[in-house]
Amino acid sequence: MTSKIRIVLLALFAVVSLSYSFVLWTNTITDSLLSSILVSVDESLMISDTEMHTAAAEDNPQEYFPLAPTTKEPEVSNDSSFIERILKSSDQKELEQWDLSRWVTLSIPSKNIRTPVFLPSRRFWDARQWNLLEEQMQVGLLNGATAYPHSVRPGEIGNVIIAGHSSPPNERAEESKYGHLFASLPTIERGDTITVTGNGTMVTYEVVRTGIVEPTDTEILAQQTDKSLLKLITCYPIGSTKSRFVVTAVKVQ
Description:
By secondary structure, the protein is α+β, with helices and mostly antiparallel strands. Helices cover 40% and strands 25% of the residues. It has 6 helices and 8 strands, in the order αααββααββαββββ. The radius of gyration is 48 Å and the shape is elongated.
């Protein structure tokens, strides 16, 4: 009886041990398989994610590969020609608003003077609106010399009358390179030549006299019908508007 019990117990122990070993082995294999499956899935997801970002980056590079932060200041052109173009564009608009057009080029070799000359429309002159005419002339003087609107064409019988600054009368003229255009004009001498060039022609004048007149003397603006004259007018003495210095030149035949 005792031997039978022992055999039964040993058999039961063997069954239990075998069952336990089977369960343990099964769990080990299951964990290994599950781990392999998870690794495979994870790698697959990583590949898909990389491909997705690569494709998206190709469509919109800056969204996925943004530029590195920088403290570099925006580049600003210091090119003097660029600045001059902007200023010229602004000046041109103002000239158009005041109905001024570039007319001829004036040259006085003995004084090393060469300047564009602007011609105002006659609307303020004909309407006798002297205040507006003065403003119109001042805009022209910021950009060179300015002819009076009733001037004849260079070389024709009559007077070409041109004004220029000898010294800047205001801040805008101070900033203009033409603010001292006629500063040396009072030292001009009889016999000096002055040329006016435009439309492919050049007219030469010779200085015959100079003089000083009051600002109220409008006789210097009068036309005449027997000679071809050029008159240059500037404020005098230099640095004031007390008087006017006038140069009269006659066309050289």
